Amino acid sequence: MYTESMRRGFSVIEMLVVMSILVVLSSFLILYNRTGELQIVLLREQAQLISTVIRAKSLALNTLIEDVPACGYGVHIEVSTAAATPSKYFVYRDKAINCRTSDRIYAAASDEIVAGTEVVLPKQVVFGDIGVRDIMFVPPEPEAYLDGSQALAEADIVMESVDGKTKATVTVNNAGQISQK
After folding, report:
1. Band of residue 4 on the pLDDT scale cut at 50, 70, 90
2. Domain count for the chain
3. CB 69 within 8 A of CB 60
4. Is 6 within a domain?
5. Which of 18, 40, 156, 163 has the most CB atoms at less than 10 Å from its CB?
6. pLDDT per position as a tens digit, 121-173
7. Could you list the residue range(s) of the whole structural domain that residue 141 is in?
8. Does 1 map to a domain?
9. Category of 52 on φ-ψ map: left (φ > 0), alpha (ψ -120 to 50) or beta
């Protein structure tokens, strides 16, 4: 004995089906948003690393106009193995007494960190495979040294999310060219 007044609303089953579909779609949206956010953080860190390497190269080009010229400028990467200590990188000034005998590798005792250049990676990003820890530019050209040597043709610096699902790579070659993958 259905009357027309009884068919005006939705049944409980119809409401539950619609609600379950909305919950499933919302969960996909939230998951996708988190992945996208992590990718943006990783790409921002990749761009900042490239900018830091370019800054070191630029400083090496301007070395000859300084009062006390440096042997060169470089970027040093410190990879942390402890979870509590984040990894970082910075621009340093090679202050060797004799530039010809400089090892072209960062040494805390003799080299100077350029003020305002230290970058600490956020907790969502870690260094993956690091092909080089020191990238040094020696004026006047500037010549590029990877870990103190020009024998290494190129090196990759991989930054990745903590879970390892998303990666960004910066490649530096011994001619000083910087590229991203």
Report:
1. low
2. 1
3. no
4. no
5. 156
6. 999 899 998 989 999 999 888 889 999 998 888 999 999 988 888 899 999 99
7. 11-180
8. no
9. alpha
d(CA 105, CA 170): 19
Residue-wise pLDDT for 52-95, tens only, equals 999 999 999 887 776 777 889 999 999 988 777 889 999 999 98
User: And the tokens for 159?
Assistant: 């930054």
Confirm if 162 and 125 have CB atoms less than 8 A apart.
yes
Q: Residue 73, exposed/middle/buried by CB under 10 A (0-12, 13-18, 19+)?
A: buried
First to last CA, the chain: 70
Establish if 49 belongs to a structural domain. yes
**54 falls within a domain:** yes
Burial of residue 46, with CB atoms counted within 10 A of its CB: 0-12 exposed, 13-18 middle, 19 or more buried:
buried
